[in-house]
Task: structure prediction
Amino acid sequence: MSTGKRYDNEYKVQAVKLAMEIGQTKAAHELGISKSAITTWVRNARTGKLDMGENSIEFNKPLSTSEKLAILERENKALKKENRELREMNEFLEEASAFFAASRQKYAKKNG
Result:
């Protein structure tokens, strides 16, 4: 059962690092938290849900198919978002370019 206690990202990162060094059960006992919490944090670190920052860890155990799928789905979502933003920016730049081209033509006719 959840106690409702929240841990910040840095604490989780350090806990995952400890778990990778001494094992999840020992790390959970040493930190006074549940093994399921550590297990979840390690899984989240492996799949990219827990931001490890510059503390990235090389995991020896291969990812499961569902973990790989979760990573690919997250990457796909991020790429779709970036693609949408780039398309919107491109559309804006095309409109701005047309506006300034028309403005320049008016100026050339007026002063030419």
Summary: The two ends are 80 Å apart (CA to CA).
